[in-house]
TrEMBL record:
Span of the signal peptide: none
Pfam families: ABC_tran
Name recorded for this polypeptide: ABC transporter
Organism: Pseudoscardovia suis
GO function term, MF aspect, one: ATP hydrolysis activity
PANTHER family tied to this protein: ABC TRANSPORTER ATP-BINDING PROTEIN ALBC-RELATED
Keyword Metal-binding among record annotations: no
CDD domains: ABC_DR_subfamily_A
Keyword terms of this UniProt record: ATP-binding, Nucleotide-binding, Transport
Ranges where the ABC transporter domain occurs: 20-248
InterPro entries according to UniProt: AAA+_ATPase, ABC_transporter-like_ATP-bd, ABC_transporter-like_CS, ABC_Transporter_VariousFunc, P-loop_NTPase
Length: 259
């Protein structure tokens, strides 16, 4: 086990209230025949960076939307730092970076950041803001309308908000897809730093290499069920990689294709 995982294990033992605690959540879309999520139970402790992975359609985004009460929980419960997830106290402790590009194009980047700062009652550190703009290649663009940002720039602006607010729980749904390699590297590092400071993060991504570098644990969703919840060091020792674990769970072997 790496030093990092040992540190976070100690942190686990010291903490009694998880940053995120999902208990027995099931969900079915109104017109769907089958449930999309079945009895989902897992947690993320303060200081932990947990990867949420699974094939397309396995229910990752649906699960995240229930965490943020975008979809009402139909059975089970979700707590943020011990408070019901739908309570405004819980909402002020958590931030959701959505997979969709639904940023308000009529605001400038700086206005967008200030809007979040006001919502969360946080004062923006101007030095940190300009350092982050520089780090993510957005220096000088903060006064431009978001409408004029590229796809990747909008995603980087969302990440900057997360790294400025530093709330106890940050949940990222594929926001890292589509950003350039340098920013991806910095984002991974900044997320790790956020968690090393004691904050928690849930990162939904198909970038297994990144998870192997920075995550403490990985939760694998398959057909709406959690089929694995393992530390990255355990995955490395037992399976070699997250890719191998996933292939094994899906029952896929190299050369299986019927071309
Ligand atoms: N609004 C909806 N109404 C009905 N079914 C939906 C709706 N949104 C998603 N689904 C279905 O729920 C299942 C899970 O979708 P979800 O988007 O949560 O998966 P995902 O794991 O996030 O996938 P991806 O990796 O492609 O983003 C899929 O079968 C999808 O078709």
């Amino acid at each position: 086990m790496s030093d990092r995982n040992e540190t976070s294990l100690e942190c686990d033992l010291a903490q009694t209230v998880p940053a995120l605690d999902v208990r027995g959540v099931s969900f079915r879309y109104p017109r769907a025949k089958n449930t999309v999520l079945t009895d989902i139970t897992f947690h993320v402790q303060p200081g932990e960076l947990v990867g949420l992975i699974g094939p397309n359609g396995s229910g990752k985004s649906t699960l995240i939307r229930t965490m943020f009460d975008i979809y009402a929980v139909q059975s089970g419960s979700i707590f943020v730092l011990g408070v019901d997830h739908a309570d405004s106290l819980a909402r002020m402790q958590s931030l959701y970076l959505s997979t969709n590009d639904d940023l308000p194009g009529f605001l400038t980047g700086e206005e967008y950041v200030q809007l979040f700062a006001q919502m969360y009652g946080v004062e923006i550190d101007a030095t940190r803001f300009s350092a982050l703009l520089k780090r993510y290649g957005l220096s000088g663009r903060e006064h431009d309308l978001i409408e004029d940002y590229s796809h990747g720039m909008q995603k980087k602006l969302q990440l900057i908000v997360a790294f400025l607010l530093r709330v106890p729980l940050t949940v990222i749904d594929e926001t890292l897809n589509g950003i350039d390699i340098e920013s991806l590297f910095f984002a991974a590092q900044d997320l790790r730093d956020l968690c090393d400071e004691g904050h928690a993060a849930l990162l939904c991504t198909h970038d297994f290499a990144m998870l192997e570098r920075v995550a403490d644990r990985v939760v694998l969703l398959y057909n709406g069920c959690i089929v694995e919840d393992l530390t990255v060091s355990h995955i490395r020792n037992e399976y070699g990689s997250i890719e191998n674990l996933t292939m094994e769970v899906l029952g896929v072997e190299w050369g299986d294709d019927e071309r």
